[in-house]
Amino acid sequence: MVGAVSHTLRIHLVQITPLVLVLVLLALRSEWGVTAAAPLFAFWLITMGFIWLFLLGVSRFLTGRFSNVEIALTLVIGLASLVGLAGECRHMRPRATIHPMQIAAMFLFGGVQTVAMWLSYQPFIAMR
Q: For 121, which DSSP code?
């Protein structure tokens, strides 16, 4: 929705590609879907937090111009991320050990999300 409102659909489609991949994993009932979703929820919650710190004049780490609709969407995205992380915590069963593949999936998807964000602002993507 942010891409449509801000007329930056291509940028935002690149940014949500990792989320779409996780949705595919979840639709396939892959055991790694929930694990892969956790770093994405965290990434977007932190990103929305930095946007709000900018809007409140506390930080200039993430800057930009945000319409009222985009500001409202930061709240929706942040809340959805928080709910997703809470669901992740409920889904996890207490275990003595964590499977190394779960750790790998978390790092992989956290990295993919970071790369997607970086790519989305490259000139070949961001040009209008």
A: T
- What lies within 8 Å, CB to CB, of 9 at 6+ separation is 3
- Read off the pLDDT of residues 20-42 as tens digits, 9 standing for 90 and up: 999 999 899 887 888 899 999 99
Q: Which helix (H) or strand (E) holds 100?
A: helix 100-120
Instruction: Take residue 60 and report the two structure tokens written for it.
Output: 């200039």
CA distances from 41 to 15, 17, 25 (A): 13, 13, 15
Q: Residue 127 to residues 8, 37, 62, 101, 124: CA-CA distances in angstroms?
A: 9, 29, 20, 37, 6
* pTM for this prediction: 0.84
**pLDDT per position as a tens digit, 48-65:** 999 999 999 998 888 888
What are the CA-CA distances from residue 4 to residues 36, 49, 63, 68 (Å)? Answer: 26, 21, 19, 14
Domains of the chain, by residue range, sit at 2-126
Helix (H, G, I), strand (E, B) or coil at 58: coil
